[in-house]
Amino acid sequence: MRLHLLVPALLVGLAACTGDTTPTEPPPEKAPPAKVDKPEPAKAKADAKPEAPQPTPLPADAHPALTDPTKATEQAPATFTCQFDTTQGSFDIEVTREWAPQGADRFYNLCKIGYFDGARFFRNIKGFMVQFGMSAYPDATKVWQKATINDDPVTQTNAPLMVTFAKTGRPNSRSTQIFINHGNNANLDSMGFAPIGKVVAGADIVGKLYTGYGEGAPRGKGPRQDVLGDYGEVYLADQFPKLDKINKTTVK
C-alpha cells in the first residue's frame, strides 16, 4: 500500500513538528480525524486496514553518532569547506568559525558523520531560501532534534548564498536544520538567525534545486515536518519524489 493512501489516518496523533523553522512557518496544524466506515460483518476480514509503512531504517553501516550526538562534538577548524554532492550536481559551503562558533562546530560534525547523506531539500521557496537538515532516517532525526546548541551572536547578514541554522522563537533551539538564502533576507538578522558560512562554489546548482512544492504544509503544498520526522525518506519518495536529494557530504 502506497504511503499517500495512508497519510490521512496516520496524521492523527502524530508527534509535533521538529521545531526547527524559519520565522514565516507556523507550527503544523493537526489534521482532522480520518473518517472510518464500519465494515459490513461479512466483509470485515477483506476490509481490514492495510499495515502502516515502516519508517526508513538506518543503513547497516551508519555512523554511530547518527543516533548518539555525544559522539560528534569536535571543534571545527577556523575555516573549512563542506562539499554537497546532490542530484543536481555539487556545491561547496565555506564556514568561518569566528562568525558563529557554536553553529560552525555543529555543522562540521553533521557533515563529518554523514548526517545529511540521503536527506532532501524539503522546503524551497523562490526568492527566499532553501531548507534541509531533517535526516532521511527517523531514528537520527528524533535524537538530534533534542540535541540543541546555544545561540551565537549575529555577526554577518543573511545575504544571498549565506548559510544559516534554522531555529524556533525560543532561545537555544538550533539543532540540525539549515537554510541557504536565495534573496537578501537581512530582516532575519534581528531575529537571531546567525549565518555560519556561505556557498563559494556551485551557486548555479543551488539555484537548480527543485522548487515546485514550495512552502510546507499546512500553509503550502510541500511536506509536513511532523510526518517527515516520523517516516523519513519513505514519505518524501512517495509523495514528493521531485525534491532534490543530498547524496553525500565531504569535509575538505
Write a compact overview of the structure shown.
This protein is of the alpha+beta class and about 250 residues long.
Outline the structure in words.
This protein is α+β, with helices and mostly antiparallel strands and 252 residues long. The chain has one domain (3-251): Cyclophilin-like (Cyclophilin), CATH 2.40.100.10. It is 17% helix and 17% strand. The chain contains six helices and eight strands. The chain has an eight-stranded antiparallel beta sheet with strand order 3-4-6-5-7-2-1-8. Residues 5-18 and 23-46 have low confidence and may be disordered.
* Mean model confidence by pLDDT: 87
* CATH C-level class: Mainly Beta
**Sequence stretches where pLDDT stays below 50 over 5 or more residues:** 5-18, 23-46
CATH homologous superfamily annotation: Cyclophilin-like
Named at the architecture level, the CATH assignment is: Beta Barrel
| Biggest sheet strand line-up | 3-4-6-5-7-2-1-8
The gyration radius over C-alpha positions equals 19 Å
Largest sheet composition: 8 strands, antiparallel
Q: What is the strand tally?
A: 8
Our count of domains comes out at 1
Order of helices and strands: HEEHEEHEEEHHHE
Helix/strand-derived class? alpha+beta
Number of H/I helices: 6
Task: Give the topology.
Blueprint: H1 7-10, E1 79-86, E2 89-96, H2 101-113, E3 123-125, E4 129-132, H3 138-144, E5 162-165, E6 178-181, E7 195-201, H4 203-208, H5 225-231, H6 233-239, E8 246-251
Antiparallel strand pairs: 1-2, 1-8, 2-7, 3-4, 4-6, 5-6, 5-7
